[in-house]
Amino acid sequence: xxxxxxxEDALAARLAALPALSGKGWLAAARAEALARLQAMGLPARRxxxxxxxxPASLNAPExxxxxxxxxxxxxxxFDGMDRxxxxxxxxxxxxxxxxxxxxxxxxxxxxxTTGDTDIHWAxxxxxxxxARGQTPVPRPLAALNSAFATDGVLIHVTGxxxxxxxxxxxxxxxxxxxxxxxxxxLGPGAELTLLENGxxxxxFSKVMEVDIADGASFHHIRIQGRDHERRAVTHxxxxxxxxxxxxxxxLTANGRLTRNEAVVELTGDEGRAHLAGATVGDxxxxxxxxxxxxxxxxxxxxxxxxxxVLMNGATGVFQGKILVKPGAQKTxxxxxxxxxxxxxxxxxxxxxxxxxxxxxxxxxxGSTSGAIDETALFYLQSRGVPRRRAxxxxxxxxxxxxxxxxxxxxxxxxxxxxxxRWLARHGSR
Amino acid sequence: MNMLxxxxxxxxxxxxxxETIETVQAMAGKYKYGWETEIETEYAPKGLNEDIVRLISxxxxxxxxxxDWRLAAYRRWVRMEEPRWAMLNYPEIDYQDQYxxxxxxxxxxxxxxxxxxxxxxxxxxxxxGIPLKEQMLLAGVxxxxxxRKVAVDAVFDSVSVGTTFKAELAKAGVIxxxxxxxxxxxxxxxxxxxxxxxxxxxxxxxxxxxxxFSDGSFVYIPKxxxxxMELSTYFRINAENTxxxxxxxxxxxxxxxxxxxxxxxxPKRDTNQLHAAVVEIVxxxxxxxxxxxxxxxxxxxxxxxGGIYNFVTKRADCRGDRAKVMWTQVETGSAITWKYPSCxxxxxxxxxxxxxxxxxxxxxxxxxxxxxxxxxKRTKSRIVSKGISAGRAQNTYRxxxxxxPKAWDSRNYTQCDSLLxxxxxxxxxxPYIEVRNxxxxxxxxxxTSKVDDDQLFYCRSRGMNEEEAVxxxxxxxxxxxxxxLPMEFAMEAQSLVAISLEGSVG
Lengths: 430, 506
Hints:
The structure holds two protein chains of two kinds. By secondary structure, chain A is an alpha/beta fold.
């Protein structure tokens, strides 16, 4: 079907600003297929059902809007001091000097940029594959654009238990950088990996991560999306889970102009578990969108979505979460909660928590609430001598606790709590 | 949970009441109202064009402005696209393969009173259990000192057959008549309010209705009047290949109260028939309207052959402060249901409530819910929706709760539960929640485990175990929807839905 004129023009303008696809090897074919998908869908528009609450204009534009650098000097960078294998990208460009050797027992780590032109690679069965599967029933054109035009990324193949976490660090230096990274992670049967991500990455950042989790494997993902900068980001996590495998993903977002985090998870083997959580704090010109789509296609799987947002001074929070239980996916346990705390009357929360269920022996529930801070609780704390600002911070932390509890590593959870506490001390409702 | 037993091939799980399943199965293929009245019918030519719109307007003896209004809607409609966002799957509707106007021949000359109405028509309503004589009403309400009265406007295909108790209502100042009569007798009121809640530009089906609506009911309750009896409209589709496009307009002036009931049935046919109605309710300061529906259009047979396509736009506008509206619906019929009775809570302290039980069986598909648009301060809304799917049916709750920036201190509570009977059906929930101020509280829940803790605690302190307590509270919730219905309907609804909702899933 031909695209409407407006969509065609927007896509043509965007493609004109991107380099033409060239090259050889396995990646060239995957890119060409992704481009074809993008051309069939066009770029997202506000009128599209899944973009009704988030304006994609700045993500679609040929050039990124400039974003001032924000260098954190008052606290240590996240995951500092942890024993980890560090891979650094500066404005989307691999920084060999700042990165560790890409060598880890039980894990093969390669860069997309250096392996893409070989004829055969394990990643060719994964790159763009889960993204393509994730295009139905909801189109995700920005993910297809990423698959077509990603400049780099890491290809991680885990066969055993990774000795230490892999940590991707995204540094933002240029005020007009536009980074497109695409990672592939393949976990063999019984393999285990923790992947850490942090940093604002670029003025505009597009990231796709495709994760294939084989039977019995376990993938932990913790992400801290920078702090107090002006970046705009669209990220996609596509995951496919085998039997008795596990996915746990947690994201902390503290400011940033625009964030759209999509997660598309398919439980294809019996007794798989997928836990997705997010804690978001936003002050002022801040728009954060969590869009989650979990498909239960096997028996006795469990999924959890826990998303909490604290919004102040006109910040906007969006949650679009869906649980799809396919016919035959009996004994499904699906849980979804999305809550927002609005600290003042200018902030807003827009939610669309969906269930689509085609099996009768399932337990699916969702809840969504939105409201102000509990004045009675605030009063109680103040009457016990806690200053108002501190009392408010305590209640906010208590509100976010359920999401942070989803982090398995207690040290990281504690660090994130401390970061939030400091952030809340710096920011308050006017 | 264990598969315990089977009822006619359907596996019954623990926690699901056997009676529930039997009742739902008993309803399958046993449509009581599927017969047809043999009556000479006059049709407008098949298809839809400007001439048909003019013809309908002329048949109703309408003034120029209304014809222009219809034509503007028609011209807009031909450029519109049918919405396809609902979770409904049906073949394309050929809008030119329908009759847009059908009337019993005997109605060509308008009867002056019910006594002049064709006895066959009266017999039809008698058979449906709808009394059109101004007699003391309703079997089953015996023993009351003063038997209750219900005024009925009976709509048969495209025309209103008659309205009862008009004289008695007129004494109280209440106007209750067909909308075509209101256009003639009360043109100022109609002109002031028609399309003010659901504008002709609203959506594809509302625009179509604006162009071709043939009849429906008109209600005006004057200031401070509590309507002395319940008002009701009974819609009957009889003619084949004919769409019904009724339009209902209810105006509750300041401080008034009315309870309005709506019922509908259609004969069993193996072709699909279109029904696209619009209901507009204007509620001024301190007024209250209760609107109850038992929708029992022919649902099609077990294989999904035939049945009504029901595309309905219903909206209440609480214009004044402290205005109150309550929608209650029991949706059991129709092959396709597309219906979202909405509340615009414009006045400060206004209230909207929506109680719904939607049952989809066999190949039925229902996409229904509500919209609560909070504009005024301290506005309150409550949504209780129970969806039951059986056979190969699909049942979707779709709702919007919107708190506007100035709707300070407003509240919403939403609860929607679904029950699936069998593994071939589907239950879906698509809520939209938009909160644009922080002094409002919005809660959306779709769990049985999160029933009110206080109630649970109370039950448990009286010696019930957890399960009994939850069952009781959840049961109470379902009853709440039934009890929101006026007595006349509650009896009908209860016989349709002798159902409990244990074993609910979100």
